[in-house]
Amino acid sequence: MVLGERPFELLRDGKPIPTHFSPEHRALWQARLGVIAENEHVRRIEQPVYKRRWYRKVSDEQEFQRAFEWWLLEKAEWWLEHEAKGGPVMLERWAAALWEDARVRAAFAVASPLPSYSTGEGPGVGAAFIKLFKDLVNSASVPEGLPPAVPWEELGKVPARARKIRGKLNVPRERFWERGKGEYVWAGKR
């Protein structure tokens, strides 16, 4: 089975059962579609929002890279909350504190040969780590004081990354708040 062939996807997209299915598979899908159509409770849980997403297989390197970046953001958030008491902290100090952790250096040494981490600038691993760290922190930050649940139109000029993080309803999902140039606060401090 491929993406788009699960029963709820067929219903959502108004598609017929694929012709390449075996007769047994077609009968099973027809029965599932019948249950979904007949039972209100099943129909509710067969909504895409309640389904595990299937993505096209990405390379092992991309999966490792995502896992490393998620782990590094978790470490960064823990450090900011516990060691810096929620902040504020300057990005360079924050990156240097994380770099002191041997686990961070070891994980970065494995991840750094990946193409997306090659910077071609600055001396050694430190510069590459700081660049990566800054990019990750900024991808999880919004300006401090940005009020939640206020329509974007009422707020005026808002950075595109804040809209990307919070979504169309301006729901706080960020890890960090940026306070001034290069200074950050833990978003859970409130």
Widest β-sheet, arrangement of strands = 1-4-3-2
Specify the oligomeric state.
Answer: single chain
Mean pLDDT: 80
Question: What is the CA–CA distance across the termini?
Answer: 46 Å
> Would you tell me the structural class of the helices and strands?
alpha+beta
Q: Which descriptor suits the 3D outline?
A: elongated
The total number of structural domains is 2
Order of helix and strand elements from N to C terminus: HHHHEHHHEHHEE
Radius of gyration: 23 Å
User: What are the low-pLDDT stretches, counting only 5+ consecutive residues below 50?
Assistant: 118-125
Strand content: 5-15%
By DSSP, the count of extended strands is: 4
Instruction: Please tally the helical runs, counting DSSP H or I stretches of 4 or more residues.
Output: 9
Largest sheet: 4 strands, mixed
Portion in helices: 40-55%
What does this structure look like?
The chain is of the alpha+beta class and 190 residues long. The protein has two domains: 7-50, no CATH class; 60-140 and 175-189, no CATH class. It is 52% helix and 6% strand. It contains nine helices and four strands. It has helices at residues 7-13, 23-38, 40-45, 60-83, 91-99, 102-111, 124-139, 152-155, 160-166; strands at 89-90, 141-143, 176-178, 183-186. A four-stranded mixed β-sheet has the order 1-4-3-2. A hairpin with a 4-residue loop joins strand 3 and strand 4. Helix 4 runs antiparallel to helix 6 (102-111). The protein is elongated and about 65 Å long. The protein starts with 6 loop residues before the first helix and ends with a strand.
